[in-house]
Amino acid sequence: MLRKTKIILAVLFFIAVTMLFLDFTGTFHLWLGWTAKIQFLPAVLALNAGVVALLAVLTLLFGRIYCSVICPLGVFQDIVSWLHSRGRKGRNRFYYSKETAWLRYGMLGVFIICLAGGVGSVAALLAPYSSYGRMAANLFAPVYRWGNNVLAYFAERMDSYAFYETEVWIKSLPTFIIAVATFIIISVLAWRGGRTYCNTVCPVGTVLGLLSRFSLFRPVIDTGKCKDCNLCARRCKASCIDIKNHGIDYSRCVACMDCIDNCKHGALRLRLRPFPGSQESTEHPANPSRRLFLSSMAMAATSAAVKAQEKKVDGGLAVIEDKQPPVRRTPIVPPGAADARHFAQHCTACQLCVSACPNGVLRPSTDIMRLMQPEMSYERGYCRPECTRCSKVCPTGAILPLTRAEKSSTRIGHAVWIRKNCVPLTDGVECGNCARHCPSGAIQMVPSDPDDDMSVKIPAVNTERCIGCGACENLCPARPFSAIYVEGNERHSEM
Predict the structure, then answer these.
(1) Which of 223, 210, 352, 347 is nearest to 282 (CA)?
(2) Cis (ω within 30 of 0) for the bond into 480?
(3) SS3 state at 493
(4) pTM for this prediction
(5) pLDDT band, residue 4 (cuts 50/70/90)
């Protein structure tokens, strides 16, 4: 019963988190957005003490229940491992192995140092929730949207608009490659060894493993009933059951309850941890130096935590050339990020905001120092002042919640005019597209010759009124580079 309950909860959490990355309508975020905010690392970075305390209490009560129920990457590994075990050769394939302590705590140390040093791209590679988010956003979401587009195609021909077509495109080639590599590595490790990644690489699993050593309820081997059949160890995907010594490494046990379910002799039971002074032969002794190392690392972690549719229709005249992104000296981070430093320190590059952006503005950065972290670019759309979707879905506090009024008055960048690209000067025709569509009225058309009021009009930018939404850059007809583009502000300000 315990195992079945755990499986049902794990499936529900897995589907909920996955749908956050697949859904492009925003419907699931209204009801299930909390499933992203209760993930361990996002809660730590958001300084959400309530969620962190809740996860710590759950671990102290039942062990690493977070890893087997709430963490989407952990459940994904269980799915891959389960697929392998469906075949006859895949059953009873596990065996006990000793803890690779130097690798576990070494990876944790690298993770914390990178997080504290601001090298978010390296830390994001190891974070379990972020790793799964990149796989879901770059691999699963395109398949989901292609399926939606097929339904929209047939629905339209039946005069139904229950579905509408959405564009599928690769937002960042480096991030896509990393997502593919992560998918392959995690799948191979899970196929061959079950929870190998969780118990050797994952920093969250290592931290929770320290707490799970002291869990109140745990599976315990009754040596009087045990027949040394080794079936529990061969079914243990965490490889943490030492049947020869009747011991269980609780720091690696993910509380899946498979051992209890598969024991034919009733030798395994979920029991209350004995009080200090009583004898228990099922737990490996703790290493004091390792505990001291983790305590210092935990203290360091606490201080560190402080396309709209692309226009390809040519009207039967000529092919419209794709726009190319300009070279920005300062990248543009989303409204609500406050400043580039705050954003870089809190963002785990999970791609949830990228998946949720309805305007195709957010995409993963290709810069090595901000690799995979979202930045704004306006080739396929612009940041509409009334849209606050990214601030609502961010689970780490990298993008703080904003109202529509606050968003409309937040200056995230300023427009810069490029004279040599401007259509009125290059083609000798009137334009004014940037001024007509500027939502803040920051652009006015003025005579190109101050002494001749009848001369061709060119845009003049009032940087004090510009909010950096990118409407001018996106809607500028100049190709391949816009005649006006947005330069980011290091620190956002209010109008």
Answers:
(1) 223
(2) yes
(3) strand
(4) 0.83
(5) confident
